[in-house]
Amino acid sequence: QVQVVESGGGVVQPGGSRRLSCAVSGSIFRINAMGWYGQAPGNRRERVATITSDGSTNYADSVKGRFTISRDNANNRAYLQMNNLKPEDTAVYYCNAAISSSNYPKVSVDYWGQGTQVTVSS
Q: Which tens digits make up the pLDDT trace of 77-88?
């Protein structure tokens, strides 16, 4: 059993900052890639940023230079620092973790959190 829990959402003014956190717990052998995905109303879920187990990062063009993804491997956590927020960043943000179990160490399974709402509005 694996749990993925996001926190840190809320209402922020344009130009403001917000830091999202993702905590992973349960039966974990190894956490491979982790990522943050955003889903705006009426749209499909889209990749915002990803980070591999060795720290390599990748960002959507719309957030490059404004958002930073990081992870704490010792504590099974990931973060998304969001700066210079814009109204178009308004979305539910989901954390994704690709996890291998001890029984199947070569198999990676995606787990999702329940999402945290970020609203950028004046």
A: 999 999 999 999
